[in-house]
């Protein structure tokens, strides 16, 4: 059978087995669409049915999470963990707490994670989980009770050599602390079962900064291929959570000017730039007071675009750092029309397939999520190394390793794109480079 027919058959099976899971279909299609030339070069992948196997999670765990709010009312949420692929190491990937979290979204994230983790050069398989719980508006005690209930089921499925969760949307230092505490209590052991831990109890320096910093390092590598750098570049950033915050910090350090941040209610536009002092306000607003980005506009007297995303603001470089499918086809057109020359994806799958198509056709620098935002999970890998050594590294050492890893991820993606006759196309390059590593390990390990 021709490579294209094999790919089509695998995709149809995915549609049939996972009805209505549109985000999962989207993520699978993007990867499969890049693999034709790989199958031609590697008939052994076809014989071993690597594609059919790689789109099916190794294990899927779905469970009930009952908890009580501060008024004694009972709530039932649904918890998930998709242990997608362990060919390269223990399952590794974040937990997302968001009302929209469902099997489709968490499977797309788990699938992406497999190839992303392969690109990091570290030994990590891929997984993802979470719950349709909304931490917004909940008290610390409610969040704690939810996390404890969630972990009371999940603990039996994870472990430092089995499956190592971390944060994602709605799961930050506070939530990791509560879940780690409950895991420790249930297992009676102190191990590196989570990453993103507090610095005083096994966490790594630079892990909070890592996704944002890594994404900016990746953008720098892309710009270098055109003899450019970030100095003086006007940048838009979406979101105002973990990834967005540290994207702004590193962009500032490298001489760029960031003019936007957003949340699910709207966007702030600050043409003078979000400098270090204003960013300190954002960190307190979002991480401590848990308020809305609108307050930034009120505090600093800048424009607030109610209900809008940042993509109509003129920029040189765009850093989508909020959520999936936040750049539509029209947004992509607007970005291109306004002269945007680089998109680096801090969020997972933030650009729709139609938006990506336009970035690629117009040959702007496009850094796909699984390469550009891999610095977060890479630094989680470094946290695991430090936990195994029982020895923390300095800030400088971790940041240097993160930087080296981002350079390596760019190089692998760039070179794979060249090797397969699509120079400069990092979408194809990242998908192929990640896939080949996982596929080879699966071949070596037999039919499992
Ligand atoms: P946070 O929860 O810290 O922040 C999320 C931000 O995105 C908030 O500003 C939030 O606004 C906004 N947002 C979330 N959902 C939506 C939505 N449906 N529409 C509009 N805005 C939305 O999460 P992170 O910063 O950790 O994650 C952001 C993205 O980066 C996600 O795609 C995540 O998967 C990805 N990522 C995260 C990594 C990490 O290490 N944390 C690593 C790699 C990727 P609001 O508060 O209003 O909901
Ligand atoms: O999407 C991601 O890569 C993350 N949320 C981070 C996962 C991790 O294990 O650090």
Report what the structure shows:
With 448 residues, the protein is of the alpha/beta class. Among the domains are: 59-190, Leucine Dehydrogenase, chain A, domain 1 (Rossmann fold); 210-367, Rossmann fold (3-Layer(aba) Sandwich). Helix content is 49%, strand content 15%. Strand 3, helix 6 (103-119) and strand 4 (126-131) form a beta-alpha-beta unit. The longest helix is centred in the C-terminal third of the chain and has 25 residues, at 395-419. It is globular, with a radius of gyration of 21 Å. The model has no long low-confidence stretch (mean pLDDT 98). Bound molecules: NADPH dihydro-nicotinamide-adenine-dinucleotide phosphate and (2Z)-2-iminopentanedioic acid. NADPH dihydro-nicotinamide-adenine-dinucleotide phosphate is lined by residues 167-170, 172, 211, 239-244, 263-265, 321-323, 346-348, 373, 376.
Largest sheet: 7 strands, mixed
Mean pLDDT: 98
Distinct ligands:
NADPH dihydro-nicotinamide-adenine-dinucleotide phosphate, (2Z)-2-iminopentanedioic acid
Strand order of the largest sheet: 9-8-7-6-10-11-12
Rg, rounded, reads 21 Å
Order of helices and strands: HHHHHEEEHEHEHHEHEEHHEEHEHEHHHH
List how many beta strands DSSP finds.
12
Which range best describes the helical content: under 10%, 10-25%, 25-40%, 40-55%, 55-70% or over 70%? 40-55%
**What percent of residues are in strands?**
5-15%
User: What distance separates the N and C termini?
Assistant: 24 Å
| Level-2 CATH architecture of the domain at 210-367 | 3-Layer(aba) Sandwich
CATH topology of the domain at 210-367: Rossmann fold
What shape does the CA trace take? globular
Q: Note poorly predicted spans.
A: none
Q: Tally the helices.
A: 18
The helix-and-strand class reads: alpha/beta
CATH superfamily of the domain at 210-367: NAD(P)-binding Rossmann-like Domain
